[in-house]
Amino acid sequence: MTPLIGVVVFPGSNCDRDAMEGVRALGGESTVLWHADATIKGVDAVIVPGGFAHGDYLRPGAIARFSPVMSAIADFAAEGGPVVGICNGFQVLTEAGLLPGALQKNRGLKFLCRTVTLRVDSTDSVLTSALDNGALLRIPINHFEGNYTCAPETLAALRADERVVVRYVGNPNGSMDDIAGICSEGRNVVGLMPHPERACDPLLGSTDGMPLLQSFLAAASGAGVSSRPG
Amino acid sequence: MSIHRQLGLTDEEAEEIEDILGRSPNHLELAMYAVMWSEHCSYKSSRLHLRRLPSDGELVLVGPGENAGVVDVGDGIAAAIRIESHNHPSAIEPYQGAATGVGGILRDIFTMGARPIALLDSLRVGPLDDARSRWILDGVVSGVSGYGNAVGVPTVGGEVVSDATYAGNPLVNVACLGIMPVDRLVLGRATGVGNLAVLLGSTTGRDGIGGVSVLASAGFGSDGDTDASEEDAAAKRPSVQVGDPFEEKRLIEACLSLLDAGLVVGIQDLGGAGLTCATSETASRGGLGMDVDVAAVPRREPGMEPFEVMTSESQERMLAIVSPDDLHEVEALCRRWDVRATVVGRVTGDEGRLRILDGFDGPVLADVPAASLHEAAPCYDRPRRPAPAVPDLPPVPAGSVHAGDDLLAMVADTAWVWSQYDSQLFLNTVEGPGGDAALLRLKHPVTGQDTGRALALTLDGNHRWCAVDPRGGTAMTVAEAVLNLACVGARPLAVVNCLNFGNPEHPEVMWQLSECIDGMSEACRALGVPVVGGNVSLYNESRGADIDPTPVIGLLGVVDRLERRPPGVTLADGAAVLLVGARSSDLGGSRWAAEVLGGGRPLGSLPSLDLAAHSATSSLVRQVVADGLLVGVHDVADGGLGVALAELVARSGVGARLDGVDGHRELFSEAPGRVVACVTADDLAEVERRAGVAGVPLARLGTAGGDRLVVGDLVDLAVAQVVGTWHDALPAIMGAPVAAGPGIPWEGKGSVDGGQG
Predict the structure, then answer these.
(1) Alpha-carbon distance values, B296 to B198, B291, B330, B337 (Å)
(2) What is the pLDDT of residue B97?
(3) pLDDT-derived band of residue B755, with 50, 70 and 90 as boundaries?
(4) Which residues of B fall within a CB distance of 8 Å from A15?
(5) Beta bridge mates, B118
(6) Of the candidates A103, A86, A92, A98, which has an alpha carbon nearest to the alpha carbon of residue A142?
(7) Are the Cβ atoms of A107 and B748 closer than 8 angstroms?
(8) Per-residue confidence (pLDDT) for residue B670, from 0 to 100
């Protein structure tokens, strides 16, 4: 069955088309989830894409979390539905309380767009199930606020439960514990700052994003994560 | 001072306005003429000369004079391209100056119906050991980054130059590329009497009032000292606009949706001269008139006078001409994107008059022939006088050249700048910033279908060449752009240009401008590339000193079959290093001569440019790149062969041993029409055969590999030193942590990437 992926569009989102292109390249189908509609239209999985939802005004994700679509996504996530937030999407998911912690300004106080190396540190998530532990991936980052932080007890819990799914090799932004991406307790909600959709074509220089999105499509098809409830 | 002079109009211009109206203009009318007849809007000093540029071509859909040039790029796709300067706003308020430069150029592109897909910026500032120049560069880069990234258009290339000629007057030129289906081309015309002019986007405030006349059409502190100059800048700060990329992003989506739905008959952006320009231009292009209800314009603040509303340059606004039958649908679509839509005008017959009213049925505040604001604008043939010749090259005593040190002083990785830009959005960027040219996959703008082809873009300028010889220097700049495209496998399609010059009332500056236009014309005719648009920025002067003439050439090209990534600026261990093109030891106009012998000022006369030979060289390079015969390539330009080699070493982390270079003159000559190519043993014979057939000279300089860059007995440097110097130069002076990394995109070599962490 071809999985149907909903891609959320807030005013100011800008990686929505890229996310849909990535899904299409890997054999999935996609549909737009408009921020003002309180429904996710029965999709199999949700991508909250990158960009500047509501202009990142106040702080990234702070306004987007009040959009009607977010409560539908929260319900879907609570039922174990696969959700991934990429870059600004990660920021939105933390603001919405679907993932712990917060993303501060980069250590160098500059926007950073460049390709980094990631290490897969947990394969038990909807985004990493098709990979091996320790796999190294070359994936672009593109953010000003990607410096992950959280309370010490939260970090301890993330580490104990192996919920840090990808870490930077050569921390570009000051992220705590080199964290590039984490998952929820149910392992069905993942947020990461790097952009897997930007690394799915040899012409663009890297295909290392493909196994991440393939994992996610597999989860959307119901075959991805063993611990998914229900 | 009389009112018209305060507004920037001369006595003769004021008399001309009185003749047109047959009466004395009121204050509002004077203010409208003042902005429209400003140098910035009317090109009154340059128009006469710009007509000499070749603008015809079978693929040209829209040439100069519209919001953007438009070229047919095949597969039913048209590319819209434009370049514009935001020099003076950026000198005064770097962040907002650059940000609104980006916003303005984007509106020029989506006004044509095209979705903007790429930005490039060409930045020129004073020496970076000066704190103010660092402040300007930091602010400008932050402004491009803050606006461009948030509005969601990738910045894929450009240039960064630091030189004393820009110390008091930096240059910020921004180019934008957009694509659309050929049949969706829209023009900024008001047609259909009774149609409505709907103002979309932001409210109108007091920001940017008189920006085009006060700011863009006058120099800085022309006779003052530093304090006076800074006071001057502070006084002009309110003329700089303030940008809101989130508003612009919604405006882009709303306008493109309106065009998709066929709901607008004409659309025009509000840029320089604001509502006055947008209403009069749409009306006069359509051969009609317009009534504008100034009271209907949504204001940002109370108490604004009509002249302020009509000349404000508040950002993120568009004027759409719509049928009254479609108004309801237009309003609904705008509401979805939270974009304000207000009827502010009506298209009228009325013999092409632009009337400003206080309420559609209220008193007439201004009444002028719409076309007179454009077509009757003055056109000056200002006096021209050749600028004094630059000094000859002095003799260089044997043994006094320290080529290795000189080389290290000339290399700097610009990643500090471009790693702050999103260069990858839309998944098109095959070659991004830092290479010879940007290369973008071409996908259909509506279906997203990959065409298997690519568009290429480069921005190039060289003030030293143009200071030595504005005509020859501009031709060399065009030639360099063509070769830059060849290095990514692309053939040239169309040129846009941004002509940054000093005060046109100085006869030497007018001569430079005229010569530059002739040089561009000659090169473009010989290379078969039409000029589809341009922008002229004059009065780039500070304390009485004009900048060196700086035409920036934007060249759009196409790759007919994109089968592989271009080789890029890199070396491969064991491969041959070749110089493609005629050898030269002519140091005239070179950076080395200026910096080492000239105290920073250019010397000598330019090497000759053989456009036929150049064409043969660029064709050869384009073909061997497209056929995958090179493993690395880099054009020879600023800093000559030496800097090209050092950059190849720095970007690859691979050394080279080269015996075929004839002394420091050949190492630093900037003679045109040459590239360095890196070829493996397997493909060497084929590359040599093709060069022979094409009649293009090819010289084997040596072999890549090892951990040193050795050039005869001129240069012997450790690769680590070249890499480190190149990588650290800009971050060190800009005070950024070097640990932020070089940001070599994609397959960056480990030795360079080791700087991370």
Answers:
(1) 10, 12, 17, 21
(2) 94
(3) very low
(4) 425
(5) B177
(6) A86
(7) no
(8) 98
Tell me whether B544 touches chain A (CB under 8 Å).
Answer: no
Which residues have C-beta within 8 Å of that of residue B143, sequence separation ≥ 6? Answer: B90, B94, B95, B96, B97, B98, B99, B101, B102, B243
Q: How many residues does chain A have?
A: 230
Whether residue B15 lies within 8 A of chain A, CB to CB, comes out as no
Assigned domain for A228 exists: no
The active-site residue, picked from B4, B40, B664, B727, is B40
B753 in A contact zone (CB under 8 Å): yes
> What residues of A are in contact with residue B250 (Cβ under 8 Å)?
11-12
Q: What is the pLDDT of residues B637-671, one digit of tens each?
A: 999 999 999 999 999 999 999 998 999 999 999 99
Whether residue A59 is contained in a domain is answered as: yes
Which pLDDT belongs to residue A229?
39
Of the candidates A48, A11, A16, the residue with the CA atom closest to the CA atom of residue B335: A11
Query: Do the domain assignments include residue A13?
Result: yes
Chain A contact present for B737, CB below 8 A? yes
**Is B150 touching A (CB cutoff 8 A)?**
yes
B626 and B561 in contact (C-beta within 8 Å)?
yes
Mean of pLDDT values over A15-44: 97
Q: Measure CB to CB from residue A110 to each of B249, B565, B740 and give the nearest one.
A: B740
Domain range enclosing A206 = 4-220
Which tokens sit at B466? 């143009």
Q: Is residue A226 part of a domain?
A: no
Residue A59's domain is classified under what CATH number?
Answer: 3.40.50.880
Nearest CA in chain A to B428: A204
| Nearest CB to B152; choose among A51, A108, A195 | A51
pLDDT digits 0-9 by tens, B165-215: 999 999 999 999 999 999 888 877 888 999 999 999 999 998 777 666 666
Contacts of A18 in chain B (CB under 8 A): 425-427
Which residue carries 């220097």 as its tokens? Answer: B473
pTM of the predicted protein model:
0.94
Whole-number percent of chain B with pLDDT over 90: 86
Provide the number of structural domains found in chain A: 1
Q: A143: nearest CA in chain B?
A: B422
Between CA A151 and CA A159, with CA A154 as vertex, the angle to 5 degrees is: 130
